[in-house]
Fold this protein.
Amino acid sequence: MRVAGIDIGSRFIKLVVLDNGEIKSTRREETGHAPLETCRSMLAASGAQRCVATGYGRYLMEVFSDICTITEIKAVALGARTVHPNCRAVIDIGGQDTKVISLADNGGVADFEMNDRCAAGTGRFLEIIARTLGYPLEEFGTVGPGSTADISINSMCTVFAESEVVSLIAKGLARDQIASAVHGSVANRVAALAKRHAIRDDIVFAGGCARNSCLRTALEQRLGRSMVVHGLHDLLAAYGAALHALEFNSVKNAQLARV
């Protein structure tokens, strides 16, 4: 059976299609101004017989009577645990929120912390700062650690932090130093969230920001341990939703067989 998981994020919509349990295809589109239409198009082309939705905009899918939803916490935990069975924690930094999830020994969610009150320290925050510093986003995450001893980014509010960055540029500081300081400030914030939990190895770094090597290095330094970045890092929630659809279908079939 072909099933799909769709993760409707604030910046991108991700789709993972499974055919007999194996990944058949993946797709990623900007959320844009008409996310429901984008979802309709993606699902129509998937050929999936069943779909589970997750993410920021999952409730949009309630217009489809045959699509159920699960939280992104559960979805990304399931996806991370499947690709990395030793996973005991997930740090997921997306476009508009940051999630720190600790897993129980059986793979279920034991606890989590989520910063979703503003875009502080998220992918959107880094996009805006990268633009302010004149970096293409794909280059911003490759900035070296540099020397940031005399640079402090005190605000994590996007507007105020951008003002701080502009002030540092006006003082003649090198942009790579400023960029490194920004990444350090974000890492400090995420590490503070993580340290409120009994985070154990192995940690899976998920979300679009996991491709940012500068942020990853800064975060690993503050946590004192390395993290696992899988090739599906930005698709783990969609993958988890697809796995949930597959599991739900198996349970349903088993129930029907007993009738």
The chain has two domains: 1-84+232-259, 85-229.
